[in-house]
Amino acid sequence: MLNKDEILKRTNNGLDIFRNYIPGGWRVGRNFLNPLYEDRKASCNIYFDRRNGCYRLKDFGNDACSGDCFSFVGQLKNLHCNSAGDFVEILKIINKDLSLGLDGSDSSFVLSVSPKPVKVNETSKQPESPKKTKPYSIEQKSFSIRETAFWRQYGITAETLKSYRVVSLKEFRSESSEGKPFRFVSSDTEPIFGYVGKRHVKIYRPFSEVRFLYGGNLGDNYCFGLEQLPSKGDTLFIAGGEKDVMSLAAHGFHTICFNSETSHIPQSIIKKLSYRFKHIILLYDTDKTGLEASLKHEQQLSDLGVKRLVLPLAGTKQEKDISDYFRLGNTRENFITLFIEFLDAIYSETMAILKPCEIDFNNPPIMAEMTVSINGVPLGTQGNLFGITGGEGTGKSNYVGSLIAGCIRQSDGIDTLGATVQINKDDKAVLLYDTEQSEVQLYKNISGILKRGKADAMPAYFKAYCLTGMSRKERMQAIIQSMDRFYYQFNGIHLVVIDGIADLVRCANDEAESVSVIDELYRLAGIYKTCIVCVLHFVPNGMKLRCHLGSELQRKAAGILSIEKDEEPQISVVKALKVRDGSPLDVPLIQFAWDRGKAMHVYLGEKTKEEKEKRKETELTGVARSIFGKQKFCTYADLCEQIQFILDVSSRPAHFSASLSQNRA
């Protein structure tokens, strides 16, 4: 609730209000010049009124200016405490300027400004008086050499002053709260500058006792520098005063300020600016008031991502703000370095995690060893996924079995169905997880693997599991935990085969679940420096895999092989859909079929050159039809881009394919 008693409670019985509005280093009980008028003799002081339990101002030279903190603010703002509407306005001003955070929507204001308090509640509201405009007049003049030098020490040029509508004044005239006219005249030792707005002027007297004065109507949300901001930018600083705004702007930084460091910062303004700027940073003075105010504002605006940057300054009168920072010889580059250090502090955890991922060109990483290749083209490598796909009955499991046999082979000269498989010479773990076939069928397949690999018994490092009896969630957990276990038991993992990765998710067309599973498998391949073979039981659609799971696998895998039936049903053909290091068309078409005499599938060699060329033509025709089936017209650049995406090749092969595709279309 917004009322007098609550405000006194939150402002040290009104002392903080006096400190906010009266400049200078005055002390309680010591005389000083009254800022309400042109006081020439220090006969005014602040004291604690024990009877009323609050601090009051006593002016021995002009008793009309004496009173409590509410009376003082009323005189500053041309408002009268005896008016209910004006007193409500005074409470609102104090609440806003000191950022007290009281609920202004609760209008149960207590107007204890007379011996008998008067309460104004919602049923007896009185209409508020309109905010009065303080009359003023100014007489401008050209900037003197000394005045120009004053701004120049902060890096502020004549162009900057003009951009922010800052003028040099010869004279400023206005009226005190009692209606008495007064004026200030500029001199060499006490210059007067004016920040000119549409309906107001803010007077700045840098070397005078009364440094700031106002004429006209500042409005509710005074914000200096708002009109000079670009539509979008990287960083916006909120400075303590107008001079700081211009000093930063002169050095190439976007900045605004509000009426004072203790003034309320409207969240509505910050919310709008947060859409336009990546960072919004509080850059207040490093004295006690500035540090406390910036910390308070940072907490209040934390939901909008507002941070604060503390300058490396002593906090003294001559060394406390960003203007002083530049005046002391620091450059734009120095401040950028300071800001980078500030970002490092914010992103310290992220940057520490990211550091090992940085590529050091002078220390190249160890090249990943090829686990599976065809004709010298790498398909399955350490730290990567290797996809094998095809329809039912095409021989996928038998082909995968030949790869496992190549890993566990006890001698050379075994049939790996046209693939070159790196032997597991260090006896690292070889793991097979089957999610589709029965235990009996898996046992039969393992027997064939051992026979193909010419192994007398199953090696201790070769582990095979039938996961059909587990739930999908349990399967993934079992794979993750067992891989970790065997990695340490066998000092590494040579190869992992997951026969049926679609059975690790509830739906292969669930994008989020598909991305999660493939990301996890890719992460495990990198952690254990192994090749994970992912068998996907789907028929490819041309050069692309179907469903979200297939698309995600094709995006992450280093190589994708498709196993299809040939025109002769007893023969299976292996063709490459994706090769990270090269083009799928560089991989020959491999043939294999069942041999009754050997009781296993055997390698039948590569298809002829004519059939290989025909395959290229067929594939490119399919690509062309896929592209031009969706659109009647396609530019050459767009065609190359789509071919790069479909075939997953670089720009040079794409340009060649584009020429052929145009002819096929």
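Next protein, fold it too.
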Amino acid sequence: MQDQTEAKVAVATRDEAARGLRRWASMGLPLAGAALILALGALTAKAQDAGEDGLIRAHGISTFGELRYGPDAPHLDYVNPDAPQGGEMSFSWSSGSFDSMHPYSRIGRPAVLSSIFFEAMLEGTADEIGSAYCLLCEEFAYPEDRSYVIFTLRDGVTFSDGTPMTSQDVMFSYEILRDEGLPSFRANIPNTIASAEIVDERSIRFDFNPDSPLRDRIQSAGGLPVFSEASHIASGLAFEDSRLEPLVGSGPYVLGEVEPGQRVVFTRNRDYWGDGLWITQGRNNFDAIRIEYYGDSLAAFEGFTAGNYTFRQESSSQAWANNYDFPALANGTVIQEELPDGTIASGQSFMINLRRPQFQDVRVRSAIAHMFNFEWTNETLFYGLYAPVVSFWENTWMEAEGLPEGEELALLEQFRDQLPETVFTEEVFAVPESSPTRSLDRRQSRRALALLEEAGWVPGDDGLLRNEAGDTLDVEFLNSGPLFDRIINPYVENLRAIGVNASMNRVDNAQLQQRQRDADYDMITDHFPMGYEPGSGLRQYFGSLGADESLFNVPGLADEGIDALIETVVQTETREELDVAVRALDRVLRDRVIRVGQWYNPSHWVAYYDMYRYPETLPPYSLGFLDFWWIDPEAEQTLRDAGAL
């Protein structure tokens, strides 16, 4: 685990393969097709004129504003439509192994990008917030009340095995994800979609629950991944069974080579049905995408310097500052760059497991948060390169500030009996800045001890804090990577200095994954990847129903006030209403102290062999190295002639 784990690579690989869509994942598993339920689930349709049959027909949908691209757009603005196709993009993965190519099952650990085979009706872009366009569909139609939607498949859509996609495949995918998919699918789909009906061979109708939010309806249906029913039947396996032979999808890549735990290669589908669409121009440019698995990040870096793979997105400030001095970089074979990253901070945090009895009191959680010294960590370990994660919508206009006022206060007042008084009387929670010159900040220690004493934790004869029952305040940090030791150990020492029985337990990746699935941890590093237009996906990260069912609600949060604010966010109908509701939710989430925010990087740190090229102006919401980068054939040949490849 590196100081940003491999979050940026994980998000990037999902985003690029899934065309910039937001993350839908558990324990680092990329489930790109399902990401639309979260990311596009927040979209609402722009008002348009209905036809004679009372239906609005559209090629795309936007939440609160105009679509950037019309139906006659030649290509996305940020791609090079004349990019040459060919060559290989290769990168590494060192956060665990894999033994499956089935990303929609809890059995087994899917390989990175194992959702690359599947597409959905709707497709997001990397230069807009809250827009989606027809990919599998040629159009969709819906009444003004959005009680249902009819998607019409494009003529000529085929799966990678050459068989045509029909509305029956769409129906099959919907039904099996609803009935046998991951718990998150089974919980979320019925909340929005009441039923589906095949209209004809190319058209399918989804009827929505009348109580479901308008903003979630069309996109919840349009965001479901579609796979071949025939391929599932032919496999002879139950849908939940792990498998190395993936279900057949319609995407631009197919499985080329797989060595469990070592390597996976995806190769271009030469007969990809979507070549020629405006939305695919200048994209999917590589003949192959290869992912090399390593036991740890140090070995992975050595693999890059040795030329075993050719693109690296760095997530360690220590490595970025100190390790990029190898010969291939010095002679120009490898390029090192910092590229702008306009996305929301990943939300990387030490998650506090609220299911544990010692963490029930918010004062205990607040005290633990006060003892993490970000300023010292950043200066001493990260070369001052990072910014702190404070808000759940860090680095956006939606983060809460100061005391609540105006429309935000008016909204919070509606739920006053469900919210702590501190929401109204204290400025939004944030740990004050600590000393950058020493790890243990005495001011923070005094504040933390005062909070713990208020919560009933007092020093025993051995110096450890104990409650009335004589129990020590145990805090175990679960960790699987040696590079993260240098961050956790000083934090543990700070906690022990005030009497907390803190420790770090290093486990292997398989144990880490299983214990996280079983909610068997005190504190663990994970992410809250929020979106610019959050919707029903918030229920899975923060809702009470997801506390025991959703793998995304890592802290096990169950709070009626937060549930009420989530529903307010989901029901908003204007951008202004959404911003107010999100700021209120951010304020209350921070007040509950369910995590200790870590850090984020406002830039992409990349190093690559000097044959890759990218558009002059990158879009704000995606690095796009798997999506719209390409290889310069002459530069590639130069490297080959020099023996660098």
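About the second fold: Residues 29 and 121 are 22 Å apart (CA to CA).
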